[in-house]
Amino acid sequence: MVSIVKNIALNIPDRLLTYLRQIGSVSNQRSVKAYTVGGVVRDLILSNECQIKDGTLDLDIVIENNAIGVAQKIADDFTTSINIHKQFGTAKIITKEDFRIDFVTARSETYQTSGALPSVTFNSIKEDLYRRDFSINAIAMSILPTDFGNLLDYTGGLIDLKNASVRTLHNQSYRDDPTRIFRAIRYEQRYNFRISQTDQGLIQNSINQNHLDNISGQRIRKEFNRIFSEEFAQKSFHRMEDFVLFSAIVPCWNLPQDFSQIWKNTLQAIDWSKQYLPNEQIDQNTMLWMALLDKKTTKTVSHRLKFEKRLQEKLNAKSRLITDLKKLSYSAKPSHVYQLLNSYPLETLIFSFWNHEHHWQKEQIRNYLLTLRHVQPKITGKDLLKQGHIPGPEMADTLWNSLARQLDELKR
Ligand code: ATP
Known about the structure:
The chain is an alpha+beta fold. The protein folds into four domains: 1-163, 2-Layer Sandwich (Beta Polymerase, domain 2), CATH 3.30.460.10; 164-249, Hydrophobic Seed Protein, CATH 1.10.110; 259-374, Methane Monooxygenase Hydroxylase, Chain G, domain 1; 376-412, no CATH class. It contains 20 helices and eleven strands. α1 (14-29) packs across α3 (67-77). The protein binds adenosine-5'-triphosphate (ATP). Residues 38-39, 58, 60, 132-133, 137, 177, 179-180 line the site of adenosine-5'-triphosphate (ATP).
């Protein structure tokens, strides 16, 4: 079926239009067909405006035959750098406005086993649309000058957009690539759509048949990171829990009981850190992971999702801090607070400040974050060396005692 929806092209923002028209024109000169596919087309149809977030945009271009030649000419025309993968028939350019344009030679894909990388054959645009995840992502818009803006919709994507339905293109789709389970949930929650009844069954089957075990930790982690950057991430996680998806990734992993509150606190913690600690390098995703994991699950999830060491350490520190905070009495001296919290990563402290239940302990963390850790020692090692001190434990004690006095005097 070929549907032609008028006016879509009229809604394309000028700065995007320039690129699309130029790519179309270069393709026309080379007698190859060119389309934009995926997110941009979907969002244009949905809202009749392109969702260009703060100047960034991912544009997917499909060329029937030799995408690399077209991409190379566009990179020359706009004097941008280009990254070519000859064997895959793909190229990527990043424009001066930070648009990322992916050029792909139209292809079909087949999956030998669940979760494996697909075998690729260069093919027509029709086949290229059939290899995609969902009908709503399988609509192509021609960008050739002769039929610019015409839509190709072989899989009922326009109807699904109208009916707010997330639907995959064949029954083996979630088996072939189980990351599509996360993608389906993400689109469903982002657009307030509904995963089709059939797809809900297919997802459940795929989970029951342990297909998720066939995908690497890195790929699962990437899907979580994508959800983290969504406005409605929390809803996506609740939906994942409906499908019992967490424990399909790692047995015994469930959302914490008071997850909604923890998530809310964590988002506030992130906003707070932007306001009060603007010069610190704080990794938001680390705090979002803290909201999803507890003492019981941190180790196994870190292992399964191949977290890098730094992230693992920060997550482990969260449980350690809960134990350590018990050592702080209500009237603990600032030097004692400093000594206890000094070794903790900022993310762990900020997360705990917003999620801890004891008001006075929260105050101690806040005092450390905003005041104590900024105190400059009046006496430094250099000063002591000049006075003839010998480096060693005694000198370290002297330095610490001096700093501790300074910290405790702040209280008065
Ligand atoms: P988003 O708004 O989430 O970025 P997008 O459509 O741009 O949406 P991408 O992940 O950038 O999403 O993928 C671009 C296109 O590539 C998709 O629209 C889809 O057609 C196709 N695609 C991406 N991932 C898969 C997958 N796992 N299986 C099949 N097709 C996929």
